[in-house]
Amino acid sequence: MRKKIYTYESDEIKVTYDLNRCIHARECVQGLNKVFDPQKRPWIQPENARGDEIADVIETCPTGALHYEMKTSDRVEKSSSKNRIQLTQDGPVYFFGDLEVRNHEGSTVLKDTRFALCRCGASTNKPACDNSHEKIEWKAGADADKSKMPEIEEEKHDKLIIKLMKNGPAILEGSYTMESASIGEHTSDKGVALCRCGASSTKPFCDGTHKEIGFEG
Ligand code: SF4
Ligand code: FES
Fold this sequence. Notes:
With 217 residues, the chain is mostly beta strands. Helix content is 10%, strand content 28%.
């Protein structure tokens, strides 16, 4: 996963922006346009708002492209109280929580509180989404077969590990609440395999099609 990090500072806050993980979800632009404005240069101007206002908006960035360090307060970014997985229509899987992405050898690729996993198979910045699903006009619903994820009463406050299999799916380890408009909220700790090649007939789960299509990633 490539990184291209830019830094913007005011007296109160240091904002970092990873161009390669931004997919123009626009939560920042809609949340605080006087700071995040693509029509201006630089496009992030942290001196135009209070540090805590900017931090609130940064914590809504679903891809983890934006992060902050406060200079004048103790505030640090916390992960959401439970690990949440949001399925998006025709787009990536968003993760929020205490997240660790590992490669097939078990090495840590990323630790973060927010992450957008490519599930169309076309991103040039795998495992992260880079908006390629729009270019290839990839289609997928935001639903899931809940019977594949036996429900648990309450989610444990554990880390969610997203383990990337070579040329295959991402395996979840830990508990999570999967959310979408069609399934509502469903909490499980089943170690399901999420399709990354884009071709499974049982999306968002892997059905082995990645082998047939020679998926690389
Ligand atoms: S919220 Fe994050 S992903 Fe969306 S436009 Fe802003 S920086 Fe990019
Ligand atoms: S990763 Fe897509 S079917 Fe397995």
